Each structure stands twice: as structure tokens, then as C-alpha cells.
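INFO batch 0412 | record 1 of 1 | parsing
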Amino acid sequence: MKKYRIAVAGATGAVGREMIKMLENRNFPVESVKFLASERSAGSKLTFNGKEYTVELLTKDGGKDTDIALFSAGGSVSKEFAPHFAADGCFVIDNSSAWRMEKEVPLVVPEVNPGDLKKDKKIIANPNCSTIQMAAALKPLHDFAKVKRVIVSTYQAVSGAGQKGITELAEQSKAWAKGEEIPAASKFQYRIAFNLIPQIDVFDEYDYTKEELKMTNETKKIMGDDSIMVSATCVRVPVFRSHSESVWIETEKPLSPEKAKELLSKAEGIEVIDDAANKKYPMPLDAEGKQVTYVGRIRKDISNAGNGLTFWVVSDNLLKGAALNAVQIAETLIKNEIV
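INFO prediction complete | emitting C-alpha cells
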């Protein structure tokens, strides 16, 4: 089997570390690997497949002698460095929002739109974490019944805000449990421990947040259908890992819960947990560390005489929502003989 020269930019961050784990766990065909980061992290050590590596400084010539680079270093860094990597012939799979809505940049969930990957499209965008899991669940339903409208509320874990979000929830929760004064919010707008914050990112002029607009715009691009109407409400919840979503869809053709379960059960990367009588449904704890997207609570919308269906989607936001999807894109490049 052919092997490939891999780079991970932003390797010491939460998603970067998960990317490294995914490359290991999925036995990615690696010929050589290098880990890149900012001056602050350069010189630190990371282990891959039992061997220790020194983290190198990310530079504009880092794409030379590299086949695929996984970027998780933030939007501004990606804008600065990704074009140089691409110019050197390296495929860049970027986890930031920098390239997602660029017309010529593929925005890919491998189970949904692998055909968007092309030899001449060197920069590839990894979608927003909350969009990925919803698109994966929508795809088989859309193919069968054509989804016309989506209304979604998300329940997003603090790890979506990085290590600072995880630390803030942990410190506030510990203080509460000890009866001590709870530390003031710094990463989030308000205290996150034992609270919900219905704001992720900043508001636009219509009072939607950037996170909500990402779900709207990215879903249309990934599904290849601008006619799908999407409205999202994104909420930060005091969960460390795994995003959950309550999704309502209206379809053009009738779609029964039974048929939806059948379609989803056969879909790649989806696992259905749906047994209301025995209280079985997916939860964040179930999804943590798992490489699948879970769907449950599939039911007909009793308030809608038309073709309304409601379901619940849960996935590990650091895996399928970020690192796993990026590595799967790289695997698809290889499978389709693009790289």
C-alpha cells in the first residue's frame, strides 16, 4: 500500500491532538509525519505510533515534501499559510471557518458529498462541528424524500470552545461542589456551570449568531441544494464533550418514522439508538470517543399534518465534528485516487 507524507498544523491544540489519535487509530498509511505549531508550542514533544516527535514551527514552506496537511490552527493562520501549502502541491484539509464558504473550496462530509473532492482543489474545508453531524443524518433522508425545511436547536459541549472552555466549566463546577465562590466567566459570556447560554459566537443584524448562520449556509453547500431552508438556534450547555441536536424536518415526499429508521440504519457512519419503550436514545456520554453519529427519538411531528419528522442527533464534536471528519476526507482523497 502506498504511504503518504502528512503534516498536522496546530498539532498541540485539542483538535490537533485528536487528529493525531485518529491517524493512529485508523491506521492511516503514513510514510512520514511532522507536527507544526506556533512559536509558543514549537519545541514541545508529541508521540505518534510510539515514537516521539519535536513540534516544529509552522512556516510558509511547510507544505514542501508533504502530500496532505491537516490544519487546526485557526482561521487567520489558515488564511496566511494554507495557500502556500497548496501552491507547493499539498492538499490542505482545514478545520477553521476560513475557507468554508469560498465558492471554489470544497466543503466536505465524506458520507454526504465525496464527489466534491477534486485533484485541482488543493484546499478543502472541514465543516462546522454542529453542521457535520446534522448533514450526515439528513443525507439519507434527503435522498429518499427531499428535505425542504430544517429547524434545529443545538446543545453544544464546552469543548467546542477549546481547552479554555473545558477548563472554565471544570473550575466553576469544582468551586460550586465545594461551596466556594464560583470563578467569573472569561471564555463564555456568562457562567456555564449549571447554566445554558443561548449564544455561540456574535450576533448579526438579524439577531442570529455566526454559529447559527454557519449551520444554515454550510448545510446548503454540503447538500448541494440551496432550496433547503434551515433555521438554527445554537446553545452552549455544561457538557464537556459531544454535541446534541433536536432536528425537525419537512420533506417533499411522505417519510414515516419506520422508513427513516430503515434509511438511517443503512447509512454509512450512522448508528440508530431508538427504543422509547426501554428508554434507549443517544446521549452525549454515549458518543464520547466514538467514531459514529447517533440518531434517536425518531418520530412523526404530531403538530404537522404534512410531512414533518423530528429526531435527535448526537456526536463527539472533537471527532466526527472535527478530527475524524478531517482524517476521513484524507482517506477519501486516497480512496478516490485524488492524491
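INFO post-check: The chain has a mean pLDDT of 97.
INFO record closed
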